[in-house]
From TrEMBL:
Record SUPFAM superfamilies: P-loop containing nucleoside triphosphate hydrolases, Phosphoglycerate mutase-like
Organism: Acrasis kona
Biological process, per Gene Ontology: fructose 2,6-bisphosphate metabolic process; fructose metabolic process
Protein name: 6-phosphofructo-2-kinase
Gene Ontology CC annotations of this record: cytosol
PANTHER family, alphabetized: 6-PHOSPHOFRUCTO 2-KINASE_FRUCTOSE 2,6-BISPHOSPHATASE LONG FORM (PTHR10606:SF44), 6-PHOSPHOFRUCTO-2-KINASE/FRUCTOSE-2,6-BISPHOSPHATASE (PTHR10606)
Gene3D superfamilies: P-loop containing nucleotide triphosphate hydrolases (3.40.50.300), Phosphoglycerate mutase-like (3.40.50.1240)
């Protein structure tokens, strides 16, 4: 995939049947064999430029991949830049310019052809392809449906997602924060870029046709109005479309902070025992104090820093003693989630890894080889489906959240937030006594880590001086 900032493409004037036939003659999608449609879905983005389509496409892709549905975004803007290079001025989108118009069409259909070809590969897998372009006329949308239909992808497996937004504040933010920083405007000043981009929007507005029931009642579609204020849905049913709808209804673009920490060291951690519901060790209790102080300090430091601030922070824990004890001194609201309880190690609960290896060598080796799909006991795959409703709730939050979870649980949440494939997350190091700060943004998320181990060591010395412990315990792994 080409990786650069995307800009909306693919303006169409209404294509007559004759024009469309002309397109099909040289259509790159025609030569492709049929796609087995049993498992495939196509999401087709619709909307004027700067309506957050690429952001939504990336969100859907991240979520679907995390759920185990192989998903890829095909962005028409990236194809244009690959074929023509960056820097097209707004005139390029003028519908009356015949040559440019047919070039744009070709670019769009090349992206669509690749999308179909991609669905073709490894047919037996469940896949979701996202066509990220403006697809702003009825004719274009109807052509897309025809082309997909010819590749054996029926209408009910194609979901149009239209983003309608006329809030000047949001549009201005999208243009200033994302569009003018695009690869297209690398040679231009901010003013030049903004002016050109606004002209580009105008050329699209002249021919844009929103999805309407009187024409489109046979299509599956989701219309999002003003970034989720209102939703209109038509012919949406089944598991994947349902999950996409739930994501769109819960996610938003308000910047906020998510903090992720494991519980403090537990009694079982000190013995290397899996699972269980033990209390915190002295070192873990020291972390509970240090974490509370850290959050309070950061709250003071960030008071005036807009979305980085910890105002109205909520603390989420599992229902296990070690996470609740870790949160106990933090002076903010707390919520306990059973879905955040640690992975269930089944008959291995309460054993060390060495004991499991000795007494159940086959099971131990099978899990080492595939923790993601391990069939006996809870797998990481099972956990994704257990944690998913909590993640939708996390997506909905606009205020900061501190999650105090467990090693496996935090791996799964981290993989989602950082856009990692869950199958790759089973070994992600989630060290004890470390806070990960994650800031979701238009392109994914950034991460910062705070290692609090030194502060825990200092707190242990104070505990010794206060007579709360009789020696400084060693650190477990
Ligand atoms: O060892 C701590 C722990 O949270 C256990 O309770 C749990 O079984 C384990 O980590 C999960 O990690 P992994 O999947 O690497 O075995």
């Amino acid at each position: 995939m080409i990786n650069c900032v995307s800009v909306d493409e693919d303006l169409d004037k209404v294509e007559s049947d004759a024009e469309e036939d002309e397109v099909f003659k040289t259509d790159p999608t025609i030569s492709h064999p049929q796609v087995s449609s049993n498992f495939s879905f196509v999401v087709v983005m619709v909307g004027l430029p700067a309506r957050g389509k690429s952001y939504i496409a990336r969100q859907i892709s991240k979520y679907m991949n995390w759920l185990g549905v192989q998903t890829e975004v095909f962005n028409a803007g990236e194809y244009r830049r690959k074929i023509l290079g960056p820097g097209q001025k707004y005139e390029f989108w003028d519908t009356n310019h015949k040559e440019n118009y047919s070039m744009r069409k070709k670019i769009s259909y090349t992206a669509l052809a690749d999308l179909i070809q991609w669905l073709q590969e490894h047919k037996s897998q469940q896949k979701c392809a996202i066509f990220d372009a403006t697809n702003s006329t009825r004719a274009r949308r109807s052509t897309i449906l025809k082309k997909l239909g010819r590749a054996n992808i029926p209408k009910h497996r194609v979901i149009f997602v239209e983003s309608i937004c006329n809030d000047p504040k949001i549009l201005n933010r999208n243009i200033m924060d994302i569009k003018i920083k695009s690869y297209d405007y690398q040679e231009a000043t901010s003013e030049e870029a903004k002016e050109d981009f606004l002209s580009r929007i105008k050329t699209y507005e002249e021919v844009y046709q929103t999805i309407e029931d009187r024409f489109d009642s046979e299509m599956s579609y989701i219309k999002m109005v003003e970034v989720g204020k209102k939703f209109v849905m038509n012919k949406i049913g089944g598991y994947i479309p349902g999950r996409i709808t739930s994501l769109l209804m819960n996610s938003h673009i308000t910047p906020r902070t998510i903090l992720l920490s494991r519980h403090g060291e537990s009694e079982d951690n000190t013995k290397g025992l899996l699972g269980g519901d033990s209390q915190l060790s002295p070192r873990g209790r020291a972390y509970a104090k240090v974490l509370s102080e850290f959050i309070t300090e950061q709250h003071e430091l960030r008071r005036n820093y807009d979305y980085l601030s910890f105002n109205n922070i909520t603390v989420w824990t599992s229902t296990m003693k070690r996470t609740m004890m870790t949160s106990s001194q933090i002076p903010y609201d707390k919520l306990q989630w059973r879905q955040l309880d640690e992975i269930d190690a089944g008959i291995c609960e309460g054993m060390t890894y060495a004991q499991v290896e000795e007494s159940m060598p086959k099971e131990f080796a099978a899990r080492q080889a595939d923790k993601f799909g391990y069939p006996r006991g809870e797998s990481y795959h099972d956990m994704i489906y257990r944690i998913e409703p909590t993640l939708m709730e996390l997506e909905r939050q606009r205020e900061p959240v501190l999650i105090i979870g467990h090693q496996a649980v935090n791996r799964v949440i981290y993989a989602y937030l950082m856009g990692k494939k869950p199958i790759d997350c089973v070994e992600i190091p989630i060290p004890l006594h470390t806070v990960m700060e994650i800031l979701p943004n238009a392109y994914g998320a950034t991460e910062k880590r705070y290692d609090l181990n030194d502060r825990v060591d200092k707190e242990l010395i104070k505990m010794l001086e206060r007579g709360e412990i009789d020696h400084i315990p060693k650190q477990s792994h």
